[in-house]
C-alpha cells in the first residue's frame, strides 16, 4: 500500500509542479511580444523620417546631375524656329565659369552655339547661366538674332578665297570643286555645316580659342561677294564680268545664267 501511495503521490507533485510552467510561459511571451510590437512602430517611424530627409537631398542632387549631363545631348540637331523654319543647331563649346562674391564663388556654365538654316544663313551666340540647358537656350536665342546671309556658289561652296581675322585668331578659306567635302576642324566645321556648304578648304593659323576662331570665320564669310552683287554695284551685266577672264561670250552668258546669288 505504501508503494501504491508513493506512486500515486508522485504524479500529483509532478502535475502540481508542471501546472505553473505552462501558465507562466505564455504570459511572459505575450508581454515580450507586446513590448516588441510597441517598439517596432516607433523604430519604423524614425526610419521613415530619416529616409525622407535623405531621399530629398538625393533627389535634388540627381536633378543637378541630369541638368549638367544635358550638354552631350545638344551636340547637334535640327529644330524648328517660331516661324516654322527648320534650323541646324551646333553646340561648339561649353565652359565652366565662376564668379567671386562675398560668400565665396558661384559656379556656372558658358555655352557657344552656332545656328544655321543650311541654305546660306548662319549665326552664332553665347550665353551664361547656372545650369547647362539654360545657358544653351540663351546662346541659341542670341544666335538666331544675329544670323547673316552668305553668298554661295552653286549652293555648295564659296565664290572665292578669303581671309578672316579677329584678335589673335586668323583663318583662311578657299572654294573647292565638287566632291571635296568640308575640310575644317573644330568650330569652323560647325559653321560650314550649319551654313550649308558642302565643299570648302579651311586652315586656322592663329589662336585656337573657339570664340576667336568663330569670329574670324564670320569675318571671312562676310567679305564674300558674288558676281551678281558686284554687277549691281558697278551697273554692269554679270556676263561682262565673267567674260573678262578670256572666256567666250557664250560661256560667259551660260555662267551668268547659272549664277543664283
UniProtKB/TrEMBL annotation:
Entry keyword annotation includes Ribosomal protein: yes
Residue ranges occupied by any S5 DRBM domain in the UniProt entry: 87-150
Record field: compositional bias (Low complexity): 19-31
Origin: domain of life: Bacteria
Any one annotated GO CC term: small ribosomal subunit
A GO BP annotation: translation
Keywords (A to Z) from UniProt: Ribonucleoprotein, Ribosomal protein, RNA-binding, rRNA-binding
Ranges where the record places region Disordered: 1-82
PROSITE patterns with a match to the protein in the record: RIBOSOMAL_S5 (PS00585), S5_DSRBD (PS50881)
GO molecular function list: rRNA binding; structural constituent of ribosome
Comp. bias (Polar residues): 1-10, 32-45
Assembly mode: Part of the 30S ribosomal subunit. Contacts proteins S4 and S8.
Domain statement: The N-terminal domain interacts with the head of the 30S subunit; the C-terminal domain interacts with the body and contacts protein S4. The interaction surface between S4 and S5 is involved in control of translational fidelity.
PANTHER family assigned to the protein according to its UniProt record, in alphabetical order: MITOCHONDRIAL RIBOSOMAL PROTEIN S5
Family note: Belongs to the universal ribosomal protein uS5 family.
Stated name of the protein: Small ribosomal subunit protein uS5
Organism annotation: Altericroceibacterium endophyticum
Amino acid at each position: 500500500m505504501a508503494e501504491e501511495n508513493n506512486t500515486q503521490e508522485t504524479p500529483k507533485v509532478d502535475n502540481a509542479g508542471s501546472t505553473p510552467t505552462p501558465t507562466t510561459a505564455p504570459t511572459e511571451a505575450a508581454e515580450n511580444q507586446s513590448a516588441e510590437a510597441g517598439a517596432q512602430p516607433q523604430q519604423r517611424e524614425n526610419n521613415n523620417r530619416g529616409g525622407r530627409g535623405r531621399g530629398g537631398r538625393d533627389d535634388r542632387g540627381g536633378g543637378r546631375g541630369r541638368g549638367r549631363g544635358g550638354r552631350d545631348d545638344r551636340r547637334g540637331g535640327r529644330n524648328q524656329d517660331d516661324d516654322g523654319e527648320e534650323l541646324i543647331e551646333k553646340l561648339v563649346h561649353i565652359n565652366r565659369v565662376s564668379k567671386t562674391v562675398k560668400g565665396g564663388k558661384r559656379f556656372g556654365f558658358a555655352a557657344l552655339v552656332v545656328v544655321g538654316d543650311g541654305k546660306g544663313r548662319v549665326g552664332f551666340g553665347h550665353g551664361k547661366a547656372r545650369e547647362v540647358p539654360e545657358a544653351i537656350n540663351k546662346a541659341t536665342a542670341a544666335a538666331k538674332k544675329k544670323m547673316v546671309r552668305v553668298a554661295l556658289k552653286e549652293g555648295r561652296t564659296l565664290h572665292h578665297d578669303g581671309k578672316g581675322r579677329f584678335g589673335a585668331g586668323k583663318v583662311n578659306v578657299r572654294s573647292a570643286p565638287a566632291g571635296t567635302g568640308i575640310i575644317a576642324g573644330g568650330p569652323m566645321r560647325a559653321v560650314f555645316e550649319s551654313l550649308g556648304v558642302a565643299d570648302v578648304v579651311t586652315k586656322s593659323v592663329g589662336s585656337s580659342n573657339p570664340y576667336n576662331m568663330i569670329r574670324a570665320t564670320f569675318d571671312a564669310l562676310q567679305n564674300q561677294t558674288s558676281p551678281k552683287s558686284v554687277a549691281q554695284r558697278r551697273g554692269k551685266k554679270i556676263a561682262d564680268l565673267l567674260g573678262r577672264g578670256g572666256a567666250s561670250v557664250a560661256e560667259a552668258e551660260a555662267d551668268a545664267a547659272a549664277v543664283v546669288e
